[in-house]
């Protein structure tokens, strides 16, 4: 069977990966399946195997196992496609641009230096340049660019290689905090517009919260958990939920406005959030928000006069003791088959005083000013 032959199964566009082997003194044994669209973040501390997974997917490092993208088999028991036969774009930690070429020349390198004149190639070039804000940089040399500008060019070059899979290996780790904040909006635009899947390696949860749809949590060369980002964020048994800055990323649709106060209403799984609208959205715009566990308080009844605008009916799904003083509570929000999940971090005294129980109803209180739009 050729690599292009179709595979059976309903999720023909999925990324299906399993690698195992010894790397020096480090044993890697991972397997996961990720969606065929959106950003899948490989997250974990330094040395857990994130970059080794990415290099193995690219064919830059050979380990036992298999690698499939939709109908294409890149590696299994009987075949191994070299890197040049794998339709990938690879963005490294530091942009490796050709110093003797202009920005335009670096972007065109993926098409063997030929300038796109018409049709699909020209459209893709113009879209990449506009998406990444590169129009004013096209004639400049790489050594005149800032770190963030160089990385944007590197991303554009990877996109213009016409990949079926984009690999990004900690693309912001070499940048300072201010530059990372400058480039994140460009990556968010990529997330909104790209039709191909992205494997994104990082050890920064803030990047995961803003960019990822799916999460693969790695620990010492193994997969600790894999699934939709919001589901793993809200799992009290995982370390990311137990961290002091734990939060859940929720996707919603703008469903209303209060123009007098600069607020918008966001439908999340049938529940309505009220939050500031600094950018002036339109109805039905998709918006993602970050809800920190420490910003969610609980009450048994709807409170009277209060400054808190978000008082949402929820069901307690599970509760775990973080230590002898604090509890971590997972909450089901909204209605229907696909309820959203929240986390609440509270003291054991509050849990006991309210007589809360798993499976029981209560209300989640969240200050509008605490909701961070992503």
From TrEMBL:
Domain Mop: 305-374
Coiled coil location: none
Protein keywords: ATP-binding, Cell inner membrane, Cell membrane, Membrane, Molybdenum, Nucleotide-binding, Translocase, Transport
Cross-referenced PROSITE patterns: ABC_TRANSPORTER_1, ABC_TRANSPORTER_2, MOP
Domain of life: Bacteria
SUPFAM superfamilies xref list: MOP-like, P-loop containing nucleoside triphosphate hydrolases
Recorded GO MF terms: ABC-type transporter activity; ATP binding; ATP hydrolysis activity; molybdate ion transmembrane transporter activity
Pfam families: ABC_tran (PF00005), TOBE (PF03459)
Record domain ABC transporter: where: 12-245
Protein family membership: Belongs to the ABC transporter superfamily.
PANTHER family given in the database record: ABC TRANSPORTER I FAMILY MEMBER 10, MOLYBDENUM IMPORT ATP-BINDING PROTEIN MODC 2
Protein name: Molybdate transport system ATP-binding protein
Naturally occurring in which organism (per UniProt): Fulvimarina manganoxydans
